[in-house]
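User: Sorry, folds how?
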Amino acid sequence: MQRPRSRALSLGRTVTEAVWFPLALFLGFLFCFAPALHAPQPHGAEVAVAGPAVAARTDAALRTRQPGGFDVTAVAGAREARQSVLDREAVAGYAEGARGPVLYVAKANGMSLEQSLTRTFTALAKAHGRRLTVEDVAPTVPADLMGTTLVYFAIAWSVPGYLLATTLLRAVSFTRRQKLLVIVGVAALFSIVGNLVGAGLGYLPRSPAAMAVAFLLTTAVATVSSGLAPFVRQFFPAVGMGLFIVLSIPTSGGVAPAPLLPPFFQALHAVMPLANAVDALRGVLYFNGAGVLKPVLVLCAWTAAGAALLGLDAWLRHRKAAAVRPAAGDPRTDEQPEVAEPPVEDPALETPVPTALPVHRHHFGEPVPMLTGTVHDAARRPVRGAVVMVLDAKGRQLVSTVTNTRGEYATTGLPDGYLTIVATSTGRHPKARQQLLRPGTPAHINFTLPGREPVPSPLPPDTTPPIDFR
């Protein structure tokens, strides 16, 4: 009977395993979304002001009204102030002329930022008894009233990229190269379809360059996810959703553009793939390519980091496979593997579960057999009910199955590397084979089990007649 303490520990462990992931997401949403978005206001927003004297006076007034909210830079004149916004060197330009003060803003940066800037500079102009004129130098398409629609398209290209990686990590029949090709193909498809839908509905301007940004975003997220999985293993869902949902969405510049985020979240905005994709999309769609190079380089850096993680995992697995490779001519093995060198293995979302499968023609969505074969007797007749066991490199049993009426067996969920397969049947000699299981390449191992010969008696039967001692 299980002791109360043991039952309590078991119950506590079960509850912990069930609750830790929702708890991690709960805390992530609680401490990321609310602190980032609850009170958007300028933090270090760059403003270009025409004329050194006006810049000094404006800077002093802004510091008084909102300390740390703005970073004022003096430019030569109103034209330069306006151009600073178009070049994305500033989020606003300000000039005082004979007809009154003018504020240059860009709705393409987000209506919430435009409204915040307008309120602040309207108050400044009113304090001097003047009326402010606001000029939108980068208006959005009519269907994008808030200037944030492209953020939702970017989320559609980002989150499915993470989900694509999670599903591909379960595709045991694909090699790493095939998975990367799928990522590239799906990213291209998503980018084309998303842009066609956005332009067709009038939500986005037509721009082939936007397709390239979308492609880079999906590729970056999917590649990094694939590279992280073998290192974080069972924590992958929390890490993936934490990176690409909990941290990415509030810092993307959607609800609150980057200048309205607190400094910590502005720092995250500078490095997160979703935020940089939004910045690049704004540049190619509304600012004639201004400010696009930096976010594109960040997206490429994420892709390179994912590729580096995949390469590191391949190298580590190569070393591990080489360490357990048996020496040539090992008498413990019935036959040597046909492949001389261990392959590069695929990362896995979680430790695979070895499973016996029914032998039939597998359909889409069903587990793909990783090891199949048949068991025959010496006359090539199928052996029904033969037991086939799969052992790992340390001799631990992974899975056991039995053959069907045709002598066939099938298993899946096996780890890549050297495995030992043993076939036994009552009244027959057992056989063992060692095989290097390659990623994405199902193995087929057949066995021939000869029958056991009758064991001769150690002494011939005694034919001497019994002696009568009477």
